[in-house]
Specification:
One of its GO terms (biological process) is glucose metabolic process. By secondary structure, the protein is an alpha/beta fold. The protein has 16 helices and 16 strands. The radius of gyration is 22 Å and the shape is globular.
């Protein structure tokens, strides 16, 4: 029998934000925390998703929960478990909500029975824990089917969809038809963009963009020489002479060393410590278009063979993300395309699978890679919201992103980054890379603007304010129902 498990999160005081805020912003944050405590007095906020590591939801939840707990709100995190067949179905739904066929497999009665059976098993344990009046935030297609059972137990159920499609098609409609029976019981639904809201949820949806935690290991300040040392010790770049120790600070304040290496597919040696890097960090997912990034970079080098730059495509170890059955096949496809390239291109392209055993060590490696990068890209074909591009912008890195989904909200073209209007247009992508690699003044200006844009719009301060407003709406709807 499948049972969900709890991920324990230590509370963190909101006081760490005070030095980053104006006096008025700090007072507003304290007021929002007081409102949250008042709304949730004697009750618990449960977050339920399908993996404890890998992907954007698992990235955001522990940090948001830590601040909520630090603000005095009892907030907990449960992870449902599933079978390989269940995760194949939910990955198919993931693709369909993006308007993509994925593997083209059916979403019929047999898939419905499998989906319902897995969630029925998980629901039994949740029903022991969730009390009437508690708020349950269900994340993404993997958990939507839990809504009726939890709502019937008296919980105030909210479904949080982190993905979507700006131009719904037949695939999107197929996904909504599959999910509709569960979503009927959701009191509210949360989306990252208004264009993602389907008609069936139009009367009970709110828009809350995701955010990053600026104090997380992945985003903490890191000296350039330390970033270079971490990348050198992992094998991502050549280790510079007399490098400092590859150290970072854990969430609890304890210093730690990066000790694990990175599994890398490459031809020849690692890039020199000073070599400009073009970097994409993402899951091994075809919608992230790692093959397109590789081919676009190859086009750039063919047109400008004298350009000094290497490409690193980095993603999590494919065995580490439980709810993504396509990762291994996607990585194999990227490697196959890499092998097709001429020798001089293969020497400049590095495919990196990052260790995930220690999530904070992984975060430190990503932090170092983004800070060391000359350009950070996210050339997704579809994207609900690109956390990695926001992380890079916080680090004042120049970015290139596809003008799809949430990426076109995060990046303002020519203001704090460059957008590629057609993600399939490799010449446009290559031209954007060339601009940022050849125009350091432009790259620096965009990076500076990017940092401020994230500070104002995409940190936990704004996110906590939005979540308080969500709790107020839930209470208002509960009052009307009563």
């Amino acid at each position: 029998m499948l049972k969900p498990f709890e991920v324990h999160v230590q509370g963190r005081s909101l006081a760490c934000f005070q030095p980053e805020l104006t006096e008025a912003e700090w007072e507003a944050l304290q007021a929002h925390a007081a409102q949250a405590r008042e709304h949730m007095a004697g009750r618990t906020v449960w977050n339920v998703n399908s993996t404890a590591r890998g992907g954007g939801v698992a990235e955001m939840l522990p940090r948001m929960l830590a601040y909520a707990r630090g603000a005095g709100v009892d907030t907990r995190w449960m992870v449902v478990q599933g079978t390989p067949a269940f995760f194949r179905i939910t990955k198919r739904l993931h693709h369909a909500l993006h308007g993509s066929r994925g593997d083209g497999s059916p979403l019929g009665p047999a898939e419905r029975a499998c989906y319902d059976e897995v969630l029925r098993d998980n629901a039994e344990e949740l029903l022991v824990l969730v009390r009437p009046g508690d708020v349950v935030l269900l994340h993404d297609p993997q958990t939507a089917g839990l809504a009726p059972t939890l709502a019937s137990a008296g919980a105030r159920v909210v479904w949080r969809c982190h993905i979507g499609c700006d131009t719904p098609d037949e695939e999107v409609e197929r996904a909504w038809a599959f999910l509709a029976p569960g979503l009927v019981a959701a009191r509210l639904a949360v989306f990252s963009r208004a264009s993602y809201v389907p008609p069936l949820l139009a009367d009970r949806s709110v828009v809350i963009p995701p955010s990053i935690d600026i104090f997380a290991v992945k985003n903490q300040p890191m000296a350039p020489e330390v970033a270079s040392a971490i990348l050198g010790h992992t094998g991502l770049v050549a280790l510079a002479p007399e490098s400092p120790a590859p150290v970072f600070t854990r969430t609890d304040g304890v210093p730690a060393h990066v000790s694990r290496g990175v599994d890398i597919v490459r031809l020849g040696s690692a890039p020199a410590p000073g070599s400009p890097l073009v970097v994409q960090v993402s899951r091994w997912d075809p919608l992230k278009d790692p093959v397109g990034v590789l081919r676009g970079f190859s086009l750039l080098l063919r047109d400008s063979p004298g350009l000094c730059a290497d490409l690193i495509l980095a993603g999590p170890s494919v065995a580490s993300v439980a709810d993504d059955p396509e990762a291994a096949a996607t990585l194999e496809n990227v490697i196959a395309v890499w092998r097709e390239q001429p020798r001089f291109l293969r020497q400049r392209v590095h495919l990196a699978s990052l260790p995930m055993v220690d999530p904070e060590e992984n975060a430190a490696i990503v932090n170092a890679l983004q800070r060391h990068a000359a350009v950070v890209v996210q050339k997704s074909l579809r994207e609900g919201f690109g956390l990695t591009i926001t992380e890079a912008m916080w680090k004042a890195r120049p970015v290139v992103a596809s003008a799809v989904g949430g990426l076109q909200d995060q990046v303002r073209h020519e203001v704090d980054g460059l957008l590629v209007r057609d993600p399939a247009a490799l010449p446009e992508f290559a031209a954007a890379l060339r601009r940022l690699l050849e125009e350091p003044v432009l790259a620096a200006r965009l990076g500076t603007e990017a940092h401020e844009h994230v500070r104002l719009h995409y940190t936990a301060v704004r996110h906590l304010k939005d979540l308080v407003a969500l709790l107020e709406q839930l209470d208002a709807r509960a009052g009307r129902s009563a």
